[in-house]
Each structure stands twice: as structure tokens, then as C-alpha cells.
Amino acid sequence: MNHFLSTDGLAAEYLNRLLWRARDFAAGAESEALRSRSVGLLFFEPSTRTRLSFEQATRRLGGETLNLDIENSSIVKGESLEDTVATMVALGANLLVVRHSETGMPHQIAAMADAGVINAGDGTNQHPTQAILDLLTMYERFGRIEGLKVTIVGDVAHSRVARSNAFALAALGAAVRVVCPPELAPDVTTDWPALEVTHDLDQALSETEVAYLLRVQTERGGADGFPSTDWYHERYGLTTARLAEMKPDAVVMHPGPMNRGVEIDDAVADSERCLAVQQVRNGVPARMAILEALIRGAG
Ligand code: CP
User: Could you give the CA distance from residue 287 to residue 292 in angstroms, rounded to a whole number?
Assistant: First the structure.
């Protein structure tokens, strides 16, 4: 069974194949790869972009979604995860897209399910489909990933997006640097590629081509280590003044949802140099490429 659970260990050749196919789909290519097939959506955590773009991607590939509304499902009556997964597969799900607050849950479901599993975000671990849409967005802007200077800023310790991007970018030869308060630094001795960690935001921004901002994840304790959001904004927020000091062709990215006024100024979020809307749009072709690869067994 083919699964898409992590960017850790993905070869450059495989990432490039997904990237080229995502570019095709972004340019309007059509595929019937999911004709007569179903994709089950199991979102145990809230989502707007990922869930909706998987729905759209499935439709564009000719398939249907089975969307489990967890809070109104038989899980609240005590049905086990195993039985829930088996029920979705019995109803026709060929692939399962899983988001969960617990690290490793998509891997557990992959071990029990007679279906391919895609990780749509597990705890603080991985969000690999986000990395593919981010690669597409960077490629569209710069025409290359190799050698690109990318600075990931913010609550890195709690970020599955940061980890997924760091592995994918490193595999394709980008130069990845991380800037964060010491309290939100990743433990680079475990499950991170080799990368530079610094606390000097202004120095890093002056050298970077992509400032990739992360949401402060208050629900995972991201704001516990600093006194106030004003304190954070002053030291680690991408303000209009900081944007003005970046290279003229440098861009800002954010996976969303944004905490405006915390990690990013309103004016920066709404500026032409912020690619957040393009990232959301690219969620559809990127996820089409992943769904197609898995259903065709090229995962
Ligand atoms: N970037 C992202 O995962 O957004 P959602 O939580 O809205 O899916």
C-alpha cells in the first residue's frame, strides 16, 4: 500500500516528479485518476485550507469524498478508531486523508487500513502536503528551489509545517535557516535535517529570498514562553519596517491561518509580496499530484 506520511526520507527525484505534476495541474491539466474512486477525509482537528483543497482536488480528479464529521459520528458513541477506519474503507474509501493532534496517528491508521493514507497534519510532527504546495509556490516565483535562501520564522518548536518544509527544501538543495525565540527553538538533535538556527531576525531577513512565517500555536503552548503578543511582535513579527529592509525580490509566505498583528502586520499580509493566497490556491494542484501518485501506485 502506498502512503504519503512524511517528507523525511523523500528523494529529490520523487519530490520533483510531484512538483512537475503539480505544475501541470496548476496550468489546467486534467486527469480522471480518481474516476469511480473515493477519498475519505478524517479530520480530528479543525482545518479550512487542507480539507477544502482535498475536496476540490478529489473532484478535479473525477472522484468523490467521504467526509467524516467526527463530532457527529459514532466515535462519540465510543466506536473504536479501527472500526471507524474499517467502516470508511467498507463504504468505498480508496485513500484516507488524516489530520490528528497526536503525532504518529496517520502512521497508525496506515498500519490498520486497507487503503492508502495521506498525512494532513499530525501533532507537531509533519504536514507533508503543505510542503509540496509550498515548493510549488516558491518554484513559480523563483524558477528554482536549489540554492534558494529560505528563512523559517517563529514557533518552530510546535510546527509540523516547518519540519515538513525543512526536509523537502533540504532534499532539493535549498539553504534553510530558522529564526525563533530560544523558547521556541526546535530540538535539532531529533527528527530535523541539518539547518542553521539563529535568533537574529533582522540579519536573517536581510539575506533571505523567502521569509516563511509560522503561526504562534497557542493551542500547543506556543505563547507560554514569552510575556505578551506585543513582545513577540516587536522581536519576531514581520512588520512593514522589516519588509522594507528585505531584498527587493524577496517574498513572504505563511501557511495560514495567520495571527495578524502577532507574527505578521496586516499591511504585510495584504501586500503583493505576501504569497499566502497563492499558497492556498496551490493547495489544489499540489494535492491532485499527491492523490494521483498514490492511486496509481507510484507513491
Ligand atoms: N495550512 C493549513 O494546514 O491550514 P488549515 O489548518 O486551514 O488546513
Answer: 8
CA distance linking residue 171 with residue 145, whole number of Å: 10
Residue 154 CA to ligand 1 centre (angstroms): 17
The per-residue pLDDT for range 248-264, each reduced to its tens digit, is 999 999 999 999 999 99
Tell me the best of 48, 55, 280 to mutate to test the pocket of ligand 1, counting ligand atoms within 8 Å of each CB and taking the most.
48
- The model's pTM is 0.96
Percent of the chain residues topping a pLDDT of 70: 99
Per-residue b/e over 99-128, b at no fewer than 16 CB within 10 Å?
Answer: bbeeeebbbbbbeebebbbbbbbbbbbbbb
Q: Tens digit of pLDDT for each residue in 35-59?
A: 999 999 999 999 999 999 999 999 9
Q: How far apart are CA 217 and CA 207, in angstroms?
A: 26
